[in-house]
Design goal:
The chain is α/β, with parallel strands linked by helices. It is built from 15 helices and 13 strands. It folds into 2 domains: 144 residues, Aspartate Aminotransferase, domain 1, CATH 3.90.1150; 237 residues, 3-Layer(aba) Sandwich (Aspartate Aminotransferase, domain 2), CATH 3.40.640.10.
């Protein structure tokens, strides 16, 4: 077996299962889960219809192998959306590529990029820098590519922006890839143009690739939408998107997590090599999924409606919780990142036992690095269910917090 598999840590939800082992939740309450960030809003009917139409038409496309690069019409849909959303002009056939959801692409992109060289002999593994807390795929992708993760803590005093200035030059010198998540998971923080300028300058100096995870880009609470990585590059005159790949998905934007559909865009030289890797890896997207994806990327009305549902929900839930705990409306995304002023593991376990509400301990989403775990004392709440269920959960959490103070 691949010895690198032994380096992988249990996924947060496995750790949560272990935390709840032996705990019987209060049967007086209906179970509510705010633990998993899985969209629960209805999938738009027109996208489902596009999928069915693609299956039923003759020929359906299911009798032929799809091209890994995707149909030209799909890649053109990516380019059209990038133009509408970010005012970017890209070549759809050299600067975009379909992927089976951003999770799959985040992992496989790292396998394409990382060159372990003679690290087995020297012990100096290539470094993959990622924010802390973070999406665990970043870490797993780095480890299985033969790299070494380096964790950069998010700073609550700076709207949870990662403290890039804390990274020593000796680390940047060994860095081959940097993961950025904007809007962030779990904090919802958006990265401003000045931060992008800092990272682009570092990339130019040290030669690493920036992989920007933007799967939460269409759920936001300000009037101004989140700045995308390629949009930032364009504003700074970097129209070739050198050493930059942005990754996005239909899962959150269009409530389609089961479709497994997204795309990557950016540096044409990297896209070319990524396509080569994917051709051998067998990552071609089903023709019927491509058809549904074209329909989804071509419509914004359902995205506006979806965003409105989240805005309404957060407007009701956030004040309820803010009255008893340190939590605030995030910039974007569908999580609340709350300070519980104490042991987040005990908080999570006791909340489940007494009120049958599941949240995720913040420490499960972060790593102990440089003397601390930035998720300690915090919980993540995914407001993905309907408004009534999320409001009910908020009332129970309020009661729980108030009972702990007595």
């Amino acid at each position: 077996m691949n010895p690198l598999l032994s380096l992988l840590q249990p996924y947060p939800f496995e750790r949560l299962r272990q935390l709840f082992d032996g705990v019987t939740p209060n049967p007086a309450y209906k179970p509510i889960s705010l633990g998993i960030g899985e969209p629960k809003h209805a999938t738009p009917t027109f996208i489902q219809q596009a999928l069915c139409d693609a299956i039923n038409r003759t020929p359906s496309g299911l009798a032929a192998y799809p091209a890994t690069a995707g149909e030209p019409s799909l890649r053109q849909a990516f380019a059209n959306w990038l133009k509408k959303r970010y005012d970017l002009a890209v070549n759809p056939f050299t600067q975009t590529l379909p992927v089976n959801g951003s999770r799959e692409a985040l992992f496989s992109l790292t396998q394409t990029l990382i060159d372990p060289g003679d690290s087995a002999v020297t012990g100096d593994k290539p470094i993959v820098v990622c924010p802390n807390p973070f999406y665990q795929i970043y870490e797993g992708a780095a480890l299985l590519a033969g790299g070494e993760p380096y964790y950069v803590a998010s700073d609550p005093a700076r709207n949870f922006a990662p403290d890039w200035d804390s990274v020593p030059e000796s680390v940047w010198a060994r860095t081959q890839q940097l993961f950025v998540c904007s809007p962030g998971n779990p904090t919802g923080a958006m990265m401003p143009l000045g931060e992008w300028q800092k990272l682009f300058d570092l990339s130019d100096r040290f030669g690493f690739v920036i992989a920007c995870d933007e799967c939460y880009s269409e759920i936001y609470f300000r009037d101004e939408p989140p700045l995308g990585g390629m949009q930032a590059a364009s504003k700074l005159g970097r129209h070739d998107f050198k050493n930059l790949i942005s990754l996005t998905s239909l899962s959150k934007r269009s409530n389609l997590p089961g479709l497994r559909s997204g795309f990557v865009a950016g540096d044409a030289a990297i896209i070319s090599q990524f396509l080569l890797y994917r051709t051998y890896h067998g990552c071609a997207m089903s023709p019927v999924v491509q058809s549904a994806s074209i329909a989804a990327w071509g419509d914004e009305a359902h995205v506006v409606a979806n965003r409105a549902l989240y805005r309404t929900k957060f407007a009701e839930v956030t004040p309820l919780l803010a009255s008893v705990m340190n939590v605030a409306l995030p910039d974007a995304g569908f999580y609340l990142w709350a300070d519980v002023a104490g042991d987040e593991l005990a908080f999570t376990r006791d909340l489940y036992a007494n009120y049958n509400v599941i949240v995720l301990p913040g420490s499960f989403l972060a790593r102990e690095a440089h003397g601390s775990n930035p998720g300690t004392g915090r919980i993540r709440m995914a407001l993905v269910a309907d408004t009534a269920e999320c409001v009910e959960a908020a009332h129970r959490i309020r009661k729980f917090v108030q009972s702990r103070r007595r």
